[in-house]
From TrEMBL:
Similarity remark: Belongs to the sigma-70 factor family. ECF subfamily.
Boundaries of every RNA polymerase sigma-70 region domain copy: 27-87
Protein name, entry field: RNA polymerase sigma factor
Domain spans labelled RNA polymerase sigma factor 70 region 4 type: 114-166
Organism lineage: Bacteria, Bacillati, Bacillota, Bacilli, Bacillales
Alphabetically ordered keywords of this record: Sigma factor, Transcription, Transcription regulation
Domain of life assignment: Bacteria
InterPro entries, sorted: RNA_pol_sigma-70-like, RNA_pol_sigma-70_dom, RNA_pol_sigma70_r2, RNA_pol_sigma70_r4_t2, RNA_pol_sigma_r2, RNA_pol_sigma_r3/r4-like, WH-like_DNA-bd_sf
Region feature (Disordered): 87-108
Length: 178
């Protein structure tokens, strides 16, 4: 059975092909959102808002061939607007007690960074790399697996074991245990 979908090129397509095209567009939009937002947690929100806008304003798209560009532009604009909203919210909530806390945190920050670096240095090089990819650079498990050329299950297990090891080191020696 051939089904005609209007959002992609007005061509006859199977549901599977249509879904693949939607998934491809979604991944491109996620990439754009991640590159534009300050707070990486806002990327999903930006893409969801962009999809709503695309579906409600689809009739205004003049050239069907420019759907991807149009969708990515909408996503980028929404992401930038989220950044502005986030900055406004932060500036409104900023007061003297927040300023005092911030100054105190900056005094402790070098010590904390040094402690984190020392703990990460204790991990084996592969585990340390995975932890940095995951928690510093924000890579997904599959991206780490691809970069390190290993199964995703291995990556998940190593990250889990490394987190447990770091927790043990942070807790320090327990009374009565050697």
């Amino acid at each position: 059975m051939v089904v005609k979908y209007s959002i992609f090129d007005n061509i006859d397509s199977t549901p599977e092909a249509y879904e693949a095209k939607l998934r491809e567009l979604y991944m491109q939009m996620i990439h754009v959102a991640h590159s534009k937002v300050i707070n990486k947690w806002d990327a999903q929100d930006a893409v969801q808002e962009a999809w709503i806008r695309i579906l409600t304003k689809y009739g205004t798209l003049r050239e069907q061939s420019k759907l991807h560009s149009w969708a990515k532009t909408i996503t980028a604009n929404i992401a930038l607007n989220l950044n502005k909203q986030s900055r406004r919210a932060q500036s409104q909530s900023w007061n003297e007690s927040d300023e005092d806390k911030s100054m105190h945190q900056h005094d402790e920050e070098p010590e904390l960074m040094m402690e984190i670096s020392e703990m990460l240095a204790k991990l084996d090089p592969r585990s340390r790399t995975m932890m940095l990819y995951k928690f510093y650079y924000g890579f997904k498990d599959q991206e780490i697996a691809d970069a390190m050329q290993m199964p995703v299950g291995t990556v998940k297990a190593r990250i889990h074991r490394s987190k447990l090891q770091l927790k043990r080191w942070m807790a320090g020696p327990q009374p009565g245990m050697n």
